[in-house]
């Protein structure tokens, strides 16, 4: 998808999006199959989830919440928060990476975009997990609201804003050459 | 030529792109704020629970109407996958309201279509999740594979795509569409923008846009319809194809064993009768049905079933067993047709 500018020629505007959308969906379909394969699960997704759990537990302890990490679980105040595939930021990262890879840009800029996404989405997900640990500890009745309605939306909005910023700056600089 | 050269020049991050970025960031954040407001209203009106219940009811009825075996009735009724929540619907509504660069007519057509596609996607996702869960449960608890490995893998991937990923990919796609549509509207000449709201007689520019804009809707609807189609093909075609597979009728027998073990003797009998009617050559089907019928007090019918089995079942070991049962008058220790009655 190439974002149109004010007063830009309509034919140029409408050339890129179809290609972007098609590649985005193809990458997404392939990615969804790949992350279900055991080598990807065992050597990529699981370690990523454990890193999320260990770091979020450490951060939570730093702000005074008594939490223990066991595997992919966070034990807090008699509750167990199991960090599953949907909660570890992997899907958000996959979607972001698919969008970056489908976007017409130089390969090095795409790689930079994906790397940026990994760091930003990991950081955002850590904030999400620490926040959910806090909610589970002090406001357990509001956990579903924060888990489903706030953070699911927020992490996608943040991923999208990251993509938007990347596409209009780093990605946008090389569109003409790569497209 | 000059125009072409200009059009091909690499673009740079310009003040106008920074302005566009600011506008779109503001739009997205405004949509997020509106979404939270809508959520509170929807929660107060119990709209979320009603929507989830409606999706579940439609999905469950769809599954029950198309299933060949009564196995999905085993699925827990209270269980609800997270996909059935209304958040994508509310988010779409928020984006509809914040797409200020589009006319109301354009917004209604584009976001209205999305609002129609989303429930279909939720129904599809819920149905696939249910099929996946029940198939997994049967595999673990009862050692029964209701899907061939490749069908199971396909359903697993589709389930992941339509639930976890679509749960996040749909809002991401919605945001992309919203930003693109709004930037595209901003790029139109002012006169064209004005004309679009008044008449649609069609300049070349408008015709070009009209020909290309529905692409997104076509892609979105195509993906949803494609996945629905896959499900429909599976439900209506693949299961029927499996039905004529000689191996498939054995599933009736396996299900009958589960039904019998769980005390559903009527259903177990029906499954065994189905297996035999569909040409099962599994000796267990005949033995179990004979046992059932015998237990219901009809030894003559039980003997007849075993004799029918002798004509069909090719396994010589089973044939020997069946003959010995017929001669001794017992099936698994119960009398089929006692030759002598004890006083």
Could you walk me through the main structural features you see in this protein, from its secondary elements to its overall organization?
- The complex is a heterodimer of chains A (179) and B (343).
- With 179 residues, chain A is mainly alpha-helical.
- Chain A is 71% helix and 7% strand.
- A 3-stranded antiparallel β-sheet of chain A has the order 1-2-3.
- The model of chain A is unreliable at 6-14 and 175-179 (pLDDT under 50).
- Chain B has helices at 2-8, 15-44, 47-66, 87-98, 104-142, 149-187, 190-198, 204-212, 214-243, 250-261, 265-277, 283-295, 299-312, 316-328; strands spanning 330-331, 334-335.
- Chain B has a two-stranded antiparallel sheet with strand order 1-2.
- In chain B, α2 (15-44) crosses α4 (87-98), α12 runs antiparallel to α13 and α13 (299-312) runs antiparallel to α14.
- At the A-B interface, α1, α2, α4, α6 and α8 of A face α2, α6, α8 and α9 of B.
Proportion of residues in extended strands of chain B: under 5%
Widest sheet, order of strands of chain A: 1-2-3
Flag low-confidence runs of chain A: 6-14, 175-179
pLDDT average of chain A, as an integer?
81
What is the H/E string of chain B? HHHHHHHHHHHHHHEE
Using a beta-carbon cutoff below 8 angstroms, give the protein chain pair with the largest interface and the number of residues from each chain. Answer: A-B, 55 and 56 residues
Shape call of chain A: elongated
How is this fold's topology laid out?
The complex is a heterodimer of chains A (179) and B (343).
Chain A: H1 10-13, H2 16-34, H3 38-62, E1 67-70, E2 73-76, E3 79-82, H4 90-102, H5 107-138, H6 143-168, H7 170-173, H8 175-178
Antiparallel strand pairs in A: 1-2, 2-3
Helix pairs in contact in A: 2-4, 3-5, 4-5, 4-6, 5-6
Chain B: H1 2-8, H2 15-44, H3 47-66, H4 87-98, H5 104-142, H6 149-187, H7 190-198, H8 204-212, H9 214-243, H10 250-261, H11 265-277, H12 283-295, H13 299-312, H14 316-328, E1 330-331, E2 334-335
Helix pairs in contact in B: 2-4, 2-6, 3-5, 4-5, 4-6, 5-6, 5-9, 10-11, 11-12, 12-13, 13-14
